[in-house]
Amino acid sequence: MKVYLKILCITAVAMLASCATMDRVSKTDAERVLHEFFRNVDFEVYNRESFRDLITDDFHIYEAGQHMSRNDFFEFIESTHSEATLSNDWQLSDFEISTDHRSAHISYKNVGTFVSKTEDGKKSVLKFHWLENAYFVMDGGRLKIKFIHSEELERQNSIQD
Questions:
Q1: Taking CA 110 as the corner, what is the angle to CA 137 and CA 97, rounded to the nearest 5 degrees?
Q2: pLDDT tens digits for 111-151?
Q3: What is the pTM for the complete model shown?
Q4: DSSP alpha helices (H): ranges in 22-161?
Q5: Separation between Cα atoms, residue 67 and residue 56, nearest integer Å
Q6: 12 in helix, strand or coil?
Q7: Is residue 108 within 8 Å of residue 133, measured between CB atoms?
């Protein structure tokens, strides 16, 4: 019985020590993955394969009033890209980041500006202000986004010559 208790105590101490030495997901890594996600949404570099290292297979997003799976999201992005698109840009700010050993959560503000050409050759500028949050998990040894929620706060539209 004493030997059994000794082995049990040694095992428990070893398990606790290994847990204590596990590194937390870094806030910098979480922020980097989020920025990379938005870089890959850009119409000039977008392709479905570019997301393989950024989002989980079961990724889902709540965007534009819709809950979308990974494939639904890809179809949504592809439907917004057109020949009239001139540029898009996202400005992410006001990060609140929480991490642990296998996950991270970020809440942030996002201002997206989308410029396209109208049928009469003018520029249409559409600017969105969103409050968003993203949940990240370790997947295959990499930090990936599992879920994003986006809440539109304000929309501005203007036409320029």
A1: 40
A2: 999 999 988 889 999 999 999 999 999 999 999 999 999 99
A3: 0.83
A4: 27-41, 70-80
A5: 16
A6: helix
A7: yes
Edge-to-edge order in the sheet of strand 103-117: 66-69, 55-63, 142-160, 123-139, 103-117, 85-99
Task: Residue 132: count other Cβ atoms within 10 Å of its Cβ.
Answer: 19
Name 128's bridge partners: 112, 155
Residue 135, strand partner residues: 105, 147
Q: What is the pLDDT of residue 9?
A: 52
Identify the three-state secondary structure at position 136.
strand
The answer to whether 144 touches 136, Cβ cutoff 8 Å, is yes
Residue type, 7: I
DSSP character at residue 80: H
User: If you ran DSSP here, which 8-state letter would residue 101 be given?
Assistant: S
Q: How many CB atoms lie within 10 A of CB 136?
A: 27
pLDDT of res. 14:
53
How do 85-99 and 66-69 pair as beta strands?
unpaired
Instruction: Give the domain 25-160 fold.
Output: Nuclear Transport Factor 2; Chain: A, (3.10.450)
Structure tokens at 125: 């500028």
Question: DSSP code of 81?
Answer: -
